[in-house]
Every structure is written in structure tokens, then in C-alpha cells.
TrEMBL record:
Official protein name in the record: Tryptophan--tRNA ligase
Motif 'KMSKS' region location, chain numbering: 197-201
One annotated Gene Ontology cellular component of this protein: cytosol
Species of origin: Streptomyces himalayensis subsp. aureolus
UniProt cross-references to CDD domains, sorted A to Z: TrpRS_core
Residues that hold ATP according to the record: 9-11, 17-18, 149-151, 188, 197-201
MF terms (GO), sorted A to Z: ATP binding; tryptophan-tRNA ligase activity
């Protein structure tokens, strides 16, 4: 059976981008067609300035949201990265296979390190080595597929390179995974700044819809979304990034196609209203289920405990084999 691995970082509250670009696909499709692992990658949340108490709370919230979004523990494995030591164990071995030049070429590293420096901060070494830990996350489980949004494409490529290199040097140990991307909404953009992605780690802004935003907040954010010059509602990512983003969100929420939906509107206002309605409808059941789960902390604890045990059982043989192969 195909094995898939994907994750979410508890660096902030989950956004509509996380949901449409990743989590929805995990819940609706991936968990039913494969042996799937979904991980709250809390070690990755330590690569930038963080508040120790908050990471733990956000991990918990992310877990609850994934379950609320429809992940079923009977169908897939949901767990927290730091509960399974194999990730850190394997990461170190892969650091001995990767090069610093490779790390410095990663687009996300360049962007995030520049942002840290611009704010007068120092750049943690773990920000540079982050893609190696991500490779360990994936390779430890022998994952065949990694469903991710566009922003993670380069990191999955690196994971493939490291797997191939390790196997060539030390004997076949790892499965070489491949990334899969959703057809629609692989890159949901910020509503106020439609040329940059809607990211939970960015400063809380009017351009980000969070999964737990109340319906009136969602509506306000979408109605105030930046639009483009001109009047025509058409899907053109280059010339009309704001409108195209709204069309993409609407299409993802209604199982439509952004190109076709464009033709149905004669005003920006009508498109915004329908997009807001569609998003509110998509979030409603998720928010209801989230409320129920928050009231049942023992259930969430149980899911995480069982998930970690299952994940450990899968990762340990592969990581042990990697230690033997490399000569330890
Ligand atoms: P973030 O940038 O919000 O911290 P994560 O690294 O936790 O995102 O990513 C979790 C999943 O959500 C990944 O598969 C990522 O590709 C996807 N994702 C994140 N932001 C977006 C977005 N704006 N549009 C589409 N997918 C996204």
C-alpha cells in the first residue's frame, strides 16, 4: 500500500491556506487511499523565535483542528514529531550526507533568514538545517508520497536527493519519495498582499483567514481583500493576482474551476460575497467539530499517544537500518 507522510508546523494558528492547500486533501482523499501519517512538526517550530508555552498550546490546537477537519485515527496516524525520537536521530545522519551549499540554496531559507536579519534578529542554525529534519521526517517512514502545497516543492526535491545519495553511498536504505500537489489552491495568497502566500507564521494580518475565525470576521477579511485595477473578473495570476486568488479560493471551496468561475461574475463585489459565503460554509462544520473536541481532551490525548506509538513502530526499523548502513 502506498505510504504518505505530511505535516503542519505549530508556529501559529492554522489558516485557510493550510486547509485548502493541504489538510482538506488529507482528510477527503489521502487517508482513504493510502497508509497515511500526519505529523504536527513541533521541532520545526523552534527554528525561529518562539515562546515555549505557546508551541505546546499550538501543537494541541493543530491536532484538534486536524481531527476537526476530518482526519480519522482509525484511518491514519496523527502524532506529534517530538514524541518520536527517530526524527532527530535520523536528521543527524542526513546532515552528514547533505552539504551546506545545498541548504543555503533553499528559497525558504533565503526568505526567512532575510526576514529575521531585517528585524535585527540572529538566524538560528536550525533554520538552515530545517530541510534535513524534514527529509528525516519523510524518509524515516519510507513514505512514497508527500502531499504538500507549492511552497514545499523544493524541500521534497532535496529529500529525494538525500535519499538517492545515501542509498548510493551506503546501500539501499530509503524509499525515494515524490511530492504531490493539489490541483486547485496549491498556493492560497494573502488577501491584502496577493503576491505573497497566506502563511500562518506571518504577523497576524487582515489578509489571513484563520480556521477558527468567526463568520463575521471571515466575511470582513474577504470583503476587504485587495483587488486589481480594471473591472473584469478573470483568472490571470500575473495580471490580476487579487481576483485570481479569490477565484481560486471560491473554486476550492465549491469544487469548481477558477477559470470557468470568472465568467460568471460582472463585479468584484459579487465575487467577494460568494467567496465569503463559500468559506464560511466550509469552515462551519470544522468549527463545530473543533468545539466538541476541545470539550473532550482525553480523546485527543489518546489519539496522540496511540499515534506516537504507531509512528515509532514504523520509523525505528528504518532508522536503525540507516545507523547500521552508515557504519555505527
Ligand atoms: P505555514 O506556511 O502556514 O507555516 P506549514 O509549513 O505548516 O505552513 O504547512 C502545512 C501545509 O500547508 C503544507 O503542505 C504547506 O504546503 C501547506 N500550505 C501552507 N500555506 C499554504 C498556502 N498559503 N496555500 C496552500 N498551501 C499552503
Amino acid at each position: 500500500m502506498t505510504r504518505i507522510f505530511s505535516g503542519v508546523k505549530p508556529t501559529g494558528h492554522l489558516t485557510l491556506g493550510n486547509y485548502l492547500g493541504a489538510v482538506r486533501q488529507w482528510a477527503k482523499v489521502d487517508q482513504h487511499r493510502a497508509d497515511a501519517l500526519f505529523c504536527i512538526v513541533d521541532l520545526h517550530a523552534l527554528t525561529v523565535e518562539h515562546d515555549p508555552g505557546r508551541v505546546c498550546r499550538l501543537s494541541r490546537q493543530a491536532t484538534t483542528l486536524l481531527l476537526a477537519a476530518g482526519l480519522e485515527p482509525a484511518q491514519c496516524t496523527v502524532f506529534v514529531q517530538s514524541h518520536v525520537d527517530e526524527h532527530a536521530r535520523l536528521s543527524y545522519l542526513l546532515e552528514c550526507v547533505a552539504t551546506d551549499g545545498e541548504m543555503r540554496r533553499m528559497i525558504q531559507y533565503k526568505e526567512k533568514s532575510a526576514r529575521e536579519r531585517a528585524h535585527g534578529g540572529s538566524v538560528r542554525l536550525s533554520l538552515l538545517t530545517y530541510p534535513v529534519l524534514m527529509a528525516a521526517d519523510i524518509l524515516a517512514y519510507g513514505a512514497d508520497e508527500v502531499p504538500v502545497g507549492d511552497d514545499q516543492r523544493q524541500h521534497v526535491e532535496l529529500t529525494r536527493d538525500l535519499a538517492v545519495r545515501f542509498n548510493q553511498r551506503y546501500g539501499h536504505t530509503f524509499v525515494t519519495p515524490r511530492a504531490t500537489h493539489p490541483v486547485v489552491a496549491a498556493r492560497v495568497m494573502d488577501l491584502q498582499e496577493p503576491t505573497s502566500k497566506m502563511g500562518k507564521s506571518h504577523d497576524a494580518g487582515a489578509g489571513i483567514v484563520y480556521l477558527l475565525d468567526e463568520p463575521d470576521v471571515v466575511r470582513k477579511k474577504i470583503m476587504r481583500a485587495v483587488t486589481d485595477s480594471g473591472q473584469e473578473v478573470e483568472y490571470d495570476r500575473e495580471a490580476k493576482p487579487g481576483i485570481s486568488n479569490l477565484l481560486e479560493i471560491l473554486a476550492a471551496c465549491t469544487d469548481g474551476e477558477p477559470e470557468k468561475l470568472g465568467g460568471a461574475y460582472t463585479s468584484y463585489g459579487a465575487l467577494k460575497k460568494d467567496t465569503a459565503d463559500a468559506v464560511v460554509e466550509v469552515l462551519r462544520p470544522l468549527q463545530e467539530r473543533h468545539r466538541e473536541l476541545v470539550a473532550d481532551p482525553a480523546y485527543v490525548d489518546g489519539v496522540l499517544k496511540e499515534g506516537a506509538e504507531r509512528a515509532r513502530g514504523m520509523a525505528r526499523p528504518t532508522v536503525d537500518a540507516a545507523y547500521r548502513a552508515i557504519g555505527l
